[in-house]
């Protein structure tokens, strides 16, 4: 079993990583006999894991209720989130309750935001079930929902009390979702750790085959890298922005094509290549490194271009609403080498358009 601590003073919490954590007992969850809790999940996860988890929680004498939301990025909004509040009120949950998010980033982000706002804040536990949520979304306390005009536009920084990562969950994950998670994994290598990037080049086949030892190392390394960043800059005033490599482009794609049509990780993959092209045009990034990135993303079965029906100019209005915009200036995360990235402002929009066009026509 791997354990990492996120050190944030009185809001510190553990991340526990192991195979089979959801199998035998609820003892890994920070809940005791007599505690109230509300489990939040979706239809897909309910069919796979809900019954088992409820049985374990009942055995541990936890008073557990649950709410099942519809499955999909298109349901990550305030009106669906309201179903969590309705369930909590119907079952008379008070401030002492704990929410449990059982699912991917969509369930985790919505449950976290519900926990941040229900009766002005209750505890919540992350039980991430996708690779993307195990390496990224469940860690660091970004919670929230989409608005039809922009991704993740409404939310709060609100840390969970514990993150429980059962790597066995990945065995039921569709291959397209596994690939989407790999986009965030590869992102860590590009922005923070060239050795890890090289390790990914060497171990990608084992990752795709879900080799348990390789998977555990991969998830652990990503969590370690993210934790270090979050501990330094919890609310994204500076270096946490680096974790958004490719995301300015990605959020434009996701909003433009309609939530759920491109998976978040797929849009991030295309966005990473757009960021690499932008950096190359500025003379800051070597084309051999762009090629290494493209090759790795392709091997992970990820797209390396944006949607064919989205022209470069179409990205701009979405980019101007990006949360990284400061006083009308878009801030971009640009790779400078494999393992090193920087936040840049004042980049000429024509360069960004040129980067997208060059990529789309390549
Ligand atoms: P998701 O939550 O939509 O899950 C992907 C799909 O896989 C869903 O259909 C889900 O039901 C299914 N699924 C989940 N676990 C499964 C399992 N073990 N077996 C079978 N099916 C399973 O998508 P995601 O990629 O996990 O998360 C994407 C979301 O996370 C986006 O909304 C993104 O904005 C957000 N995100 C948040 C952060 C953060 O820091 N809070 C970071 C990255 C991404
Ligand atoms: N996924 C980016 C962040 O958590 O900051």
Please outline what is shown here.
By secondary structure, the protein is of the alpha/beta class. About 45% of the residues lie in helices and about 20% in strands.
Would you give an account of this structure?
This protein is α/β, with parallel strands linked by helices. The chain has two domains: 2-172, Rossmann fold (3-Layer(aba) Sandwich), CATH 3.40.50.1970; 191-360, Dehydroquinate synthase-like, alpha domain. Helix content is 45%, strand content 19%. The protein has helices at 43-59, 78-90, 105-117, 131-137, 175-192, 194-208, 212-232, 247-257, 264-281, 287-299, 315-320, 349-360, and strands spanning 2-6, 13-18, 36-42, 63-69, 98-103, 123-128, 142-147, 150-157, 162-166, 331-337, 340-345. It has a seven-stranded mixed β-sheet, with helices on both faces. A two-stranded antiparallel sheet has the order 7-8. Strands 10-11 form a two-stranded antiparallel sheet. β10 (331-337) and β11 (340-345) form a beta hairpin. The protein is globular. Bound molecules: nicotinamide-adenine-dinucleotide and glycine (GLY). Residues 136, 140, 142, 240, 243-244 line the site of glycine (GLY). Nicotinamide-adenine-dinucleotide binds next to α1, α3, α4, α5 and α9.
For the largest sheet, list the strands in their spatial order: 1-2-9-6-5-3-4
Number of domains: 2
Helix content: 40-55%
* Strand content bin: 15-25%
**N/C terminus separation:** 45 Å
Structural class: alpha/beta
Q: Which series of helices and strands comes N to C?
A: EEEHEHEHEHEEEHHHHHHHEEH
Q: Give every kind of bound small molecule, once each.
A: nicotinamide-adenine-dinucleotide, glycine
Question: Sheet with the most strands?
Answer: 7 strands, mixed
């Amino acid at each position: 079993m791997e354990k990492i601590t996120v050190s944030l003073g009185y809001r510190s919490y553990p991340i526990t990583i192991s195979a089979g954590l959801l199998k035998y007992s609820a003892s890994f969850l920070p809940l005791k006999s007599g505690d109230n809790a509300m489990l939040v999940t979706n239809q897909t996860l309910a069919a796979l894991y809900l019954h088992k988890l409820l049985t374990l929680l009942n055995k541990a004498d936890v008073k557990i209720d649950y709410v099942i939301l519809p499955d999909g990025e298109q349901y990550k909004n305030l009106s669906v989130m309201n179903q969590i509040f309705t369930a909590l009120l119907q079952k008379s949950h008070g401030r002492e309750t704990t929410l449990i998010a059982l699912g991917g980033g969509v369930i985790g982000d919505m449950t976290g935001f519900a926990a941040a706002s229900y009766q002005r804040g209750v505890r919540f536990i992350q039980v991430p079930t996708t690779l993307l949520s195990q390496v990224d979304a469940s860690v660091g306390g970004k919670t929230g929902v989409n608005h039809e005009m922009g991704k993740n536009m409404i939310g709060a920084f609100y840390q969970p009390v514990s993150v429980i990562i059962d790597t066995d969950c990945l065995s039921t994950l569709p291959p397209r979702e596994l690939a989407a998670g790999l986009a965030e994994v590869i992102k860590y290598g590009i922005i923070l750790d060239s050795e890890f990037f090289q390790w990914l080049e060497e171990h990608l086949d084992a990752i795709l085959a879900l080799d348990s030892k390789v998977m555990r190392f991969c998830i652990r390394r990503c969590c370690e890298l993210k934790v270090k960043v979050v501990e330094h800059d919890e609310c994204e005033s500076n270096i946490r922005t680096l974790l958004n490599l490719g995301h300015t482009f990605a959020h434009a794609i996701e909003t433009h094509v309609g939530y759920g049509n491109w998976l978040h990780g797929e849009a991030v993959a295309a966005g990473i290549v757009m960021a690499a092209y932008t950096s190359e045009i500025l003379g800051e990034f070597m084309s051999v490194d762009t090629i290494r990135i493209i090759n790795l993303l392709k091997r992970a079965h990820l797209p390396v271009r944006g949607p064919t029906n989205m022209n470069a100019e179409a990205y701009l209005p979405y980019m101007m609403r990006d949360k990284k915009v400061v006083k009308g200036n878009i801030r971009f995360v640009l790779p400078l080498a494999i393992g090193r990235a920087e936040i840049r402002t004042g980049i000429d929009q024509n360069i960004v358009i040129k980067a997208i066009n060059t990529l789309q026509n390549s």
